[in-house]
Amino acid sequence: MLTSNPAPAQARVIDNVFTADECEKIIALGARRPREDARVQSYGNAARIGHVAWVDPGPETIWVYQRLATMVVWVNQAFQFELLGFVDALQYTVYGIGHKFDWHVDIGAGQASLRKLSITVQLSEESAYEGGGLQFISAPDQTSSKARGSAIVFPSYLAHRVADVTDGTRCSLVGWAAGVPFR
After folding, report:
1. In order along the chain (183 residues), what is the average pLDDT of each group of 10 residues?
2. Which residues touch 155 (CB under 8 Å, ≥6 apart)?
3. Cα-based torsion angle of the residue sequence 19, 20, 21, 22 in order, rounded to the nearest 10 degrees
4. Rounded to an integer, what distance in angstroms lies between the CA atom of residue 64 and that of residue 62?
């Protein structure tokens, strides 16, 4: 008899991955990095409007990587993906009024083909912005947590978007746990 694993089609919300003070430290780390306009090569310039900065692993950031890695190991018990770690730097993202990221998937060609789990950590206070929700095309009723310090983890092949920010500023930290290509 065949059994199914519903986990590969779902996102998981994990509360309290980082404290409010730790979120402030991550925001400060991201703000000190060179900022660039968010771009997506294959979706066109209007698909993503916002700003990003890359947070590489190093002495100042190792605690962030370790916390996320520990969480990913725990969450991956449900997904059961073959994971090796992070192959991309973490992405500090800032979305202001009118900023968005249209429907997309995080897996792609080249190094992006190794992405298996996508992670978004909410760094802003819940009251700091309106709109800007992380939404999933396959689960329109699923709501991602806006609680500061929470993370949402989902398979990188799930189509998702960041809806238009209508007020304030949304800050988040994005990462991708990678592994051997899907078979």
Report:
1. 59 95 98 86 69 96 98 96 94 95 90 94 96 85 81 95 96 96 81
2. 8, 9, 79, 81, 116, 117, 118
3. 50
4. 5
Q: Which pair of structure tokens corresponds to residue 118?
A: 């996508």
Beta bridge partners of 152: 13, 120
Question: Can you tell me the distance from the alpha carbon of 57 to that of 24, in angstroms, rounded to the nearest whole number?
Answer: 18
How deeply is 2 buried, as exposed, middle or buried, from its count of CB atoms within 10 A (0-12, 13-18, 19+)?
Answer: exposed
Do residues 123 and 27 make contact, with C-beta atoms less than 8 angstroms apart?
yes
CATH architecture under which domain 12-179 falls: Sandwich (2.60)
Task: Tell me the β-bridge partners of 95.
Answer: 170
What is the longest distance spanned by two Cα atoms in the chain?
A: 55
What is the spatial distance between Cα 174 and Cα 177, in angstroms, rounded to a whole number? Answer: 10
The backbone torsions φ and ψ at residue 65, rounded to the nearest 5 degrees and listed phi first, read -60, -40
69 — phi, psi (to 5°)?
-60, -40
What pTM was computed for the model?
A: 0.90
Which backbone phi and psi does 12 adopt, to 5 degrees?
-120, 135
CA-based nearest residue to 56, from 84, 32, 20: 32
